[in-house]
Amino acid sequence: MKLTRILALLFVFLAAVSASMADSVTLRNGDHLSGTIVTSDGKDVTLKTDYAGEVKISWSAVKEVASDKPLFVVTGDKTVNGVISTDGTNLIVHSASSGEVQVPFGKITVVRPADQQAAYEKTLHPSLAQGWKGGVTIGLAIARGNSDTTSLSSGFTADRKTLDDELTIYESSIYTSNGGVNSGTTANSILGGIKYDRNFSKRLFGFVSGDFTHDELQGLNLRSIYSGGLGWHWINNPNTTLDILGGINYTRETYSSSTTATTTGVNVNRNLPGITTGEVFMHKFGKSTVVTQDFYFYPDLSDIDQYRFSVDFASVTKINKWLAWQFSLSDRYVTDPPIVGTKTNDVILSTGLNVSFAH
Length: 359
Hints:
By secondary structure, this protein is mainly beta. It is built from 2 helices and 22 strands. The protein has 2 domains: 23-124, no CATH class; 132-358, Beta Barrel (Porin).
């Protein structure tokens, strides 16, 4: 009997301690809620309760609020840490270093508990291995019998974006060969590149990039375009971005053609200074589809009649967290390829399943 009473008293004591340790919100209509403050901004405060899950409450409906653990209150120009209470339309932060700090509800950017603040601060200065998002696409087609063809395509994108900079790596390729009587390679192109952006302000950024192209049937061993310049974040929100950029570039091209019974081998090396202009666009359609597009135009400074351009378009539609359907289109154009009989541009179109990753 004594044991039962002791256990009952212990249960009541633990319940009282648990209640005293909870954050509390008192509404203007007299209702009282207790739980844990998850986050807040100048309009709402979100309270996680055991009985109703997360409850979002408008600050205009709040009469009093109190926290049992220190919270990080962020305004436009400072962050204050401490337990909180209210005084009319002000949030009072009881800071150990600054004393009582009054923050009007309308100036609150966000309120975070310690674990969320630590996670946020970690995102401000991530290591190079952190923050990557991207995906890999591989396609294979084989035909045998009356046809004898093999086709392999691939695509890869990786992007690491922080508050200060962005690093992008990309690759796409296609290889197709015919067997039988008319055996030979009918397509062999590889496109790839890397681009780094550094923000100087909310709108202005600088960039450096390298774009690389190999095209066997055009006789192009390698075209390397190294660019640098300035850009402007024309549109910059979570669902849509549009960057306009311009600068200068150095282009190096190496072409060669093999010697046959009717032709003589040709080797051409070209080093060309030029101008870089372009735009990069991204838009999210709902929660599952992302469309990206970029266009770069490279006029040749040594001969104004000569130029190059590149166009890339891609869409990725999520099937689940790691699997998606991808469609991509890439075009590379040069006004005057030196190998006689070759065409001025090549297009790679591919589609297939995309395996996404994030780190």
